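#onboarding

Welcome to the new folks! Below is a worked example of what a typical request in this channel looks like: someone posts a single protein sequence, and someone else replies with the predicted structure as tokens. Don't worry about understanding the tokens yet, we'll cover that in week two.

Example request:
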Amino acid sequence: MAVKVVRGFRGEYAFLSNFYPCSVRLWGVEYKCAEAAFQAAKAQNVTQRWAFVGLSGAEARRMGRRVPIRPDWEEVKVGIMTQVVRAKFTQNPDLAKKLLATGDALLVEENSWGDTFWGTCQGRGENMLGRILMLVRYELRYGIQRGRS
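Example response:
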């Protein structure tokens, strides 16, 4: 039996993208998408993080490249992404249902811009976002509750 693979978070699977517009509330702040919450977490202070409120995913990514990044970012970024993705799907039941409907599909954040950490490019990469999505899908399926913010 072949394993279904979702390659790239576009079209019917656009909801898997961190750029997908949906409310994500973390650290007492509501963001317009998971990408804005993730990029805000890079900032060194709370004032800088507030600048991400109301931004689209593309706007947040651009701003995230300009903000002074917290010194421990490389050590904490995977845990923060997990927290952000978990919040996105636990706070938006319609999206949780869609994630669960992917069944046991392998979720691959395939991209053309060379991101081989969060996704894959030309078949190579860590696919950390895909792995986190599959972890959150597993938690949802089996009712596992982890650190909610």
